[in-house]
Amino acid sequence: PPRSTLSSSSAASDVYKRQILDLLNKKIILTYLLINIINKLMSHLILVRHGQSEWNLQKKFTGWVDVDLTPEGKLEACKAGELIKDLNIEITHFYSSYQIRALNTLKLILNTIRVKNEKILKAWELNERHYGALTGLNKDEMKKLYGEEKIHIFRRSWDNPPEALKKTSPYHPLNIDIYKNVPRDKIPDTESLKNTYERVIPFYKRNIEPKLDKNIIVSAHGNSIRSLCKYLFDLDNKKISSLEIPTGNPLLIEIEEGKIKNASYLDKDLSLIHISEPTRPERIAYAVFCLKK
């Protein structure tokens, strides 16, 4: 064909390519704007279990003992911050337990999303469950000594607390400085999940639930978050025993007009299931949360 015809065909092809790219760019921009509009119409509750702690790594029962994050735990917290930053939402309320592993997780998240640490509200009610006389002991060794079934009952049952920790133990909260302002009659010697639930949920109802028209993040622990999930998703006592909470993976709960519309983990590499079925919140919780066994 003549050179002029080829040039004309090439020019037309370039025009079509530019038009397609332009349409794609417009679609991306519209999608981004739509996501922003939806995010502003909904509020969000983000629950995140602290990153890996030093005693997580050593497979010790930690409870109320104040141990810090491992380097891996700090990386988990920073990754959680990046995932939350990608949501492009304004978070206005920040809660943590008294314990340094949860507090430092939240500080690393806030540093990533460029929010000042002084906005953090600490609450001992969000602390991990107290493991009583099991505190400081290795989980694998205890399984060999007492049997896996008995240890599983202590770890996962609803209302079977371990034997009480002696008040003279250096691991007892009475002997740990960060709890000096906690009323002595509120400091436990041991706890079941039921006991944990009974301190976490009243605090949540008083202090967090009334603010659910805003975006909130809670940095806490496996059992305090399990307690919140039992309440939020109406899980029965049997299902709660199967609930596992991964470290450092934010759980995003979307709320519209006071009702949960969706729940999903932000790190999809650790969360194989994404459920959106607002009429069945219990099913959402069970499917979404029971991921790391």
Q: Which word captures the global form?
A: elongated
What is the strand arrangement across the widest sheet? 3-2-4-1-5-6
The stretches of 5 or more residues where confidence is low (pLDDT under 50) are: 271-293
Strand/helix succession: HEHHEHEHHHEHHEEH
- Taking Cα atoms only, what radius of gyration do you get, to the nearest Å? 24 Å
Summing up helix and strand content along with how strands pair, one would put the structural category as alpha/beta
Indicate the proportion of strand residues. Answer: 5-15%
Number of distinct beta strands? 6
Overall pLDDT confidence: 85
Biggest β-sheet, characterized? 6 strands, mixed
Distance between the termini: 67 Å
- Number of alpha- plus pi-helical segments: 10
Descriptive account of the structure:
This protein is of the alpha/beta class and 293 residues long. It contains ten helices and six strands; from the N terminus they run H-E-H-H-E-H-E-H-H-H-E-H-H-E-E-H. The chain has a six-stranded mixed sheet with strand order 3-2-4-1-5-6, sandwiched between helices. Helix 4 (100-113) links the parallel strand 2 (93-96) and strand 3. The chain is elongated, with a radius of gyration of 24 Å. 36% of the residues are buried.
